[in-house]
Amino acid sequence: MAARVPAASAPVRAYVGLGANLDDPVGHVRRAFSDLGRIPATCCVLRSGLYRNPPLGPADQPDYINAAAGLDTGLAAEALLDALQAIERAHGRVRGPVRWGPRTLDLDLLLYGELCRDDARLTLPHPGLHRRAFVLYPLREIASGLVIPGHGPVEALAARCPGVELEPVMEPR
Predict the structure, then answer these.
(1) Which of 46, 56, 108, 110 would you label with 100, given CA atoms 20 to 30 Å apart?
(2) Domain range for residue 54?
(3) Residue 66 is part of a domain; what is its CATH number?
(4) Of residues 30, 35, 108, 140, which has the active-site annotation?
(5) 82 noted as active-site residue
């Protein structure tokens, strides 16, 4: 008998931030977009371009490749988080002692509908999202009319957050 997947009461639009800076980061992010579409009861409906940027954490690591995705999901927030962490592990993600250290793949649940939550397991909206160009610019690209609960429109937030260090990654046609 298959395990029961916890479901939300109705499909929810969730947004995920993708990032990588080890072992072919562009490849990890591209493959992660496909992996997101294979999460049960979930469809990846929006995909930003890729952006290169310096690391947020320790400077002695490679630049990051970042992107954003929009998902329509029937999963509860916790079940979606579990699925995201399983994808990270499948990409070789090891959570080390250094915060914001290098990684093969980082998938952050940025928003889950309009849910606001702050507990030991999950904080929504994702903390810092409203101040990080490497999150706001890809998010604005796929959802320019989005309003971040408690912070305002993504357009206004991005306008106040200079993306001078962001470099679009040209994708092959």
Answers:
(1) 46
(2) 7-168
(3) 3.30.70.560
(4) 108
(5) no
